Amino acid sequence: KKVLLKVDQLKQYFPIKGGFFGRTVNHVKAVDDISFHIYQGETLSIVGESGCGKSTTGRAILRLDQPTSGQIHFQGKDLLRLGKKDMRRTRKDLQVIFQDPFASLNPRQTIGQILGEALAIQNVVPKENRRGRIEELLGHVGLRPESLERYPHEFSGGQRQRIGIARALAVDPKLIICDEAVSALDVSIQAQVLNLLKKLQRQFELTFLFISHDLGVVRHISDRVMVMYLGKIVEIADKKSIFEQPQHPYTRALLSAIPVPNPVQERERILLTGDVPSPIDPPNGCRFHTRCPFVMDICKTKAPELKRSTQNHQVACHIVS
Ligand code: SF4
Ligand code: MG
Known about the structure:
The chain is an alpha/beta fold. It folds into 2 domains: about 5-95 and about 175-270, 3-Layer(aba) Sandwich (Rossmann fold); about 110-170. It is built from 10 helices and 12 strands. It has helices at about 55-60, 85-90, 110-120, 130-140, 155-170, 185-205, 215-220, 240-245, 250-255, 295-300, and strands at about 5-20, 25-40, 45, 70-75, 75-80, 95, 175-180, 205-210, 225-230, 230-240, 305-310, 315. The protein has an 8-stranded mixed sheet, sandwiched between helices. It is globular. It starts with a strand and ends in a 6-residue tail after the last strand. The relative contact order is 0.14. The site of iron/sulfur cluster has 13 residues, from loops. Iron/sulfur cluster (SF4) binds near residues 288 and 299.
């Protein structure tokens, strides 16, 4: 399997200003030294509660924020060290679909104008061929060609998300980051949009980084799953292992909170208590220790490293080895 994107020791700290002089008094450690990779053609999901750093990771890859440190290699090039011109060229290979399609579509533009703009920015299709290309894109996402004359408010939430997908697809990307892309939709519409994404993935050899707090959705779409907690990766494995043999207490707690499809496999349930601590001053040692039912002395002082437990399964916990 070929690695498309490789993230090494990524840190994203956001300064907190304070005092009379607006000095930096502290940092939010939104992402704190994470390394992982995405294989070409797969769907890797990032899951975790809000504030765990999953969106921040996506934004760093898109270079919407400049990371504090680390490397992000995409097709062999370090994105964080690309000049403006090279980044612009690479930008078309990296697209994003956000949660709220309406917020990211200009209400005064027709769908034709919105998609036409996406094509114009990257100049991927000569002007005279753009209308045909837009009709083709609408077809790919299951919308009628006449849709291009209409405005975003004339569409349902699911249809608007299809427009968002068409816009991402317009420039022929390699990696699409879906940040809570179906979270605002009804469950039945979610399934349709997820199935559409899967179809497009096969058709155009797309790779997805799928960011979601919803394990049901993640179960539907993923090949592999990465679980984050307070800026750290706590577990990464293929989907089957995550759902059937979760090893990290936090992953097990997340799974305990969703209905088990097969009662025979009913696991020992772990209930999450307390709130996620502040990412400004995260707990020492294992960041999950303040909420972990298995906490030991060592957990309070020594941070567990992400280690391979079995083939394709990595866990950061002192009790798993
Ligand atoms: Fe719990 Fe310790 Fe494992 Fe952290 S390292 S998850 S506190 S057992
Ligand atoms: Mg988010």
